Amino acid sequence: MRWLISIFCVAMACAEGKSDFQWVTSAPNKQCLATPRRAPADWAQRSGAVSLNQEWEKDPRKPWYVELQREGGRWVEAGLAHGDEASIGWGLQQLGWGFAQMKSDGAFDCGDPFHSASFLVESTARSLLLLRGTEFEKTYQARIHLLMPKLLNCARWLASPVNQKAADKQRIYTHRRFLLGCALEQTAQLHQDEALHRAAVTFVSDGLGLQRGDGAFPEKGGHDSSYHAVALIYLQRFSLLTRDQELRERCEQAADRGVAWLCSRIDAEGLVSVEGNTRTGDQQEVGRTGAIKKVNLPEVATALFLHAYRRDQASVADIARKVLSAR
User: Fold this and answer.
1) Vertex 87 angle, CA 322 and 19, to 5°
2) Could you tell me the pTM of the whole model?
3) Gap between the Cα atoms of 227 and 218, Å rounded
C-alpha cells in the first residue's frame, strides 16, 4: 500500500513539472552547467578509470578512490541534456569501472571506502533513474542490466550495521547526510527496496535536524560556503525525488532557508565569501589529488539554479550566473 501511495505522489510531482529529469533537460542546466561534452572516439575500448584511478591501474601501490568515478554521472547528465549517445555511454563506462572493483560484500579496498562508495552509488543510481523511459535506456540496456545488482549490493552495504560507526562519525559533515539519503533513496526506487527507503529517510531527517537557526548546514563545527552548497544540491535532489509529501515540504523549507543563507554570502559581483569557513577558502584542507580546496563555484551555482527551478525565482538564477561569471 505504501508503494502505491508513493507512486501517486511521484505522479503528482511529475505533473507539476518538478522532477530531476525536467531539471536536467531545462535551459539553465543545459546552457550553464551540464554543457556539451565530447566523448573520446574510442571510449568503448577504454577502461573508464578516472583521475588517480588511472595511475592505480598502472601501479596498485598508489592510492585510489572509487568516488572519482562519479564523473561518469556528469557525463550521463550532459549526454541526456543534449541528446548525446556517446557521452552517456562514456559515463556508464566510468561508473561501470567503479563497480568492477567492488568486493562481493559490496565494499571497496580504496581510500575512505564508506564515503567514497556513497558518491558512486548516488551518481550511478541517479544516472539510471534519469535514463528510465528515454530512448537511451534501450540503447544501453546491457550496461544498465549489469549495473543494477551491483548498485543494490553496494547500497545495502552502505546501510548495513557494519557501517554504523562510519556513518555516525560523518555527522560532523551535514552534506554527507543528504548525500547518503539521495544514494539510498534513488537505489530504493530503482529496486523497490523498502529497507533502503527507510534508511534514506533516517539520514535525511537527521541532516535536517542539524541545520542551524540561521539556515547554515554545519561542517566540522562551523559553516562553509562551499560544502553548504553541496548540502543544498543533495537536499534539493532528494526533495524532487521523495515520495513522502510531508518530508518533501520539510526539505523544501530547509532548502529555502539554506539558499537564503548562501545568498547572504554572495556580493553584487558574484563573489562568494569564505569568512569563517571551516573547510575551504583559507588552505584548511586538500582534496584527493593534493590540491588545496577552494570554494567550488559550479556547485554554488548549481545549488542556486536548482532553487530557482524549484521555486520559479529568476532573481536567484541571476545570482547563480554572476557566481559563474566571477570565476
Assistant:
1) 60
2) 0.94
3) 9
Angle at 212 between CA 298 and CA 313, to 5 degrees: 45
Question: What are the extents of the domains in the chain?
Answer: 1-18+214-327, 34-210
DSSP 219: B
Cell numbers for 202, please give them.
Answer: 533516517
Structure confidence at residue 17 (pLDDT): 64
Mean pLDDT of 30-54: 97
125-128 contacts at long range (C-beta below 8 A, 24 or more positions apart): 125/151, 125/155, 125/182, 125/183, 125/186, 125/187, 125/190, 126/20, 126/73, 126/182, 126/186, 126/237, 127/72, 127/73, 127/76, 127/77, 127/91, 127/92, 127/95, 128/190
**DSSP track, 21-40:** HHHHTSHHIIIIIS------
Q: Do residues 282 and 230 touch, judged by C-beta distance below 8 A? A: no
Which residues share a beta bridge with 223? 277
Dig out the grid coordinates for 231 from the structure: 548540502
* Residue among 200, 199, 203, 221 nearest 212 (CA): 221
Question: First CA to last CA across the chain, in angstroms?
Answer: 49
* Predicted confidence band of residue 4 (pLDDT cuts 50, 70, 90): very low
